[in-house]
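Researcher: For the record, we're logging two predictions in this thread. I'll number them. Prediction 1 follows.
Model: Prediction 1, sequence and structure:
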Amino acid sequence: MIYRILDGYKYELAEPVIVQTGILEQVCQLHSEELDHLYIRLHADGQLFINKRYAWDGASGIPDNKNVMRASLVHDALYQLMREGLLDREFREAADDELRQICLEDGVGKFSAWCIWKAVRLFAEKASLPEKKPRGQIVEI
């Protein structure tokens, strides 16, 4: 995964990322079509497509390193879908579980992955709520 530092956000994808999520069996029961956003597409088959130029702020509360970057990207994208009303907030726990699973896949130890998961379960609910004012926009160059 290639990314670059960006004003207003910490990172911007330099290439698209595709991740097979574990939450879509549940989503498919509610949505027969894909969930589509300018930079994020969640297909009914479970694949999450995050387009080039998607910006996110990395992991909150812990150092950004290669073991948590993909997990923070996917988690932020899923939470953005919730904030924008495209994905029901009932999937928040599933998104948090996805964060933990990707952390484990990318080399985070079991205890550390659990701590990260527990922190988002306790403190990240507000991040899934609709925003009154968007955090910012990506400026196309």
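Researcher: Logged. Prediction 2.
Model: Prediction 2, sequence and structure:
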Amino acid sequence: MIKALIFDLDGTLANTEELHYRAWEKTLVGNGLPEFTFPTFLNYVGSSNEKLASDYACSYGIERDATELVLAKQANYMELIPEIELCAGVREILNRFHGEKLLAVASSSHQREVMAILELHGITGFFTQVLGGDMVQKKKPDPEIYLRMQALLQVSAQECVAFEDSSHGLNAAKSAGMFGIAIPNEFTRGHDFSRADRILDSFKEVGDTLLLGLVAGSESQD
């Protein structure tokens, strides 16, 4: 039986990718990088601020360390948060399963950013637990954030479904032993979702029949 639905934030619950790019472009170009293109940024979708910052710190003419770059990017991003919109079907799935399933957020973004977006749209109260990427040591695709969320929710891995838009996130959930549903967006459709239990177009396809099918399919493989 599925007891918990766990959601990634960026690109899954909220359309944030272009704003993350704008914040990184302003940060990196402002610190000496000649240019930072959107296709380059897309290589990091589903990863963490720390990964991108470490790749550019002390290189390409940038003298600030990774921690400084992350803080500068976060400051630029926080200014853009009022522009962020929720993805299609988010309110519907939260209203549908609130009170019936445990709902949680497991994001690579920092907790401060995650909470600001949830509060902006008035959906914080739907979630039993919220974990940001700065609350774990290892970032997606490492399963640490999902393993920690499982412990917080006090459920088994096979009672959890994770919703992700990227291969990094999907692989993190699957490596934690959870069901993984991919909902690619326009920036991640080319990712490898071969480990996904389902690949959907939107949250509108999620209902009791789909969740029951995940469990039935798993049991038939045992």
